[in-house]
Design brief:
The chain is an all-alpha fold. The protein is built from 9 helices and no strands.
Length: 197
């Protein structure tokens, strides 16, 4: 029996079909069609930003930044703490299902983790100007991509064992290392807050 964690195209049941129909196989790299197949895919793939052919994490973070600015300008200061908690809970559900459907523990195309984590950074450094936000973006991308120290530990913590399956713990793990990357970003930025507020 092939290992679903190493088979790039494991079978997936299309949620829109009757369970009696044969299972579908997702693409190796998620497509627009795959994303629109299930609401969890739309959320986990960052409403399409995770479909970028290169550096989807960077595109997901840029989309988060743009959405944060637009929301703040359109609606004024928002209750970010409850929004982030709700987004985290929704993200565990969406990232778990999307990873299961792709058959990969932490697909690069899943970017809801970047969205939630970077929103938390932007909220906690507010009312930072665009230069401070740019610095936060660069630091967050470094920690998320390079995964030094505690970020690497967080990334490995919930990975399934070889031959294991993707469950809720792995779904939470997709988000957890980005939250640690956000915390590392804030640890470097907050002591200098007086310089950029």
């Amino acid at each position: 029996m092939p290992d679903p964690m190493h088979d790039p195209t494991p079978p997936m049941q299309d949620p829109a079909r009757d369970p009696a129909h044969p299972p579908m196989r997702p693409p190796t790299r998620p497509t627009l069609r795959f994303m629109l197949r299930h609401p969890a895919h739309v959320i986990a793939l960052g409403f399409g930003s995770g479909l970028a052919p290169r550096a989807p994490g960077t595109f997901g973070t840029l989309a988060a930044w743009a959405a944060f600015v637009l929301l703040e300008r359109g609606f004024g200061p928002l209750p970010w703490l409850p929004l982030l908690v709700a987004g985290l809970l929704l993200g565990v559900w969406a990232c778990t299902l999307c990873a299961q459907h792709l058959g990969v523990a932490d697909p690069g195309a899943i970017v809801w983790d970047e969205v939630i984590a970077f929103w938390a950074v932007l909220w906690l450094i507010a009312p930072a100007g665009w230069l401070a936000q740019l610095l936060a973006f660069a630091l967050f991308r470094y920690f998320d991509a390079a995964k030094p120290g505690p970020v690497g530990w967080a990334d490995r913590l919930f990975k399934p064992a070889p031959g294991g399956t993707v469950g809720w713990a792995q779904g939470f793990g997709i988000l957890f290392d980005d939250l640690v990357a956000a915390a590392c970003t804030l640890l470097l930025m907050l002591p200098t807050r007086a310089l950029w507020t």
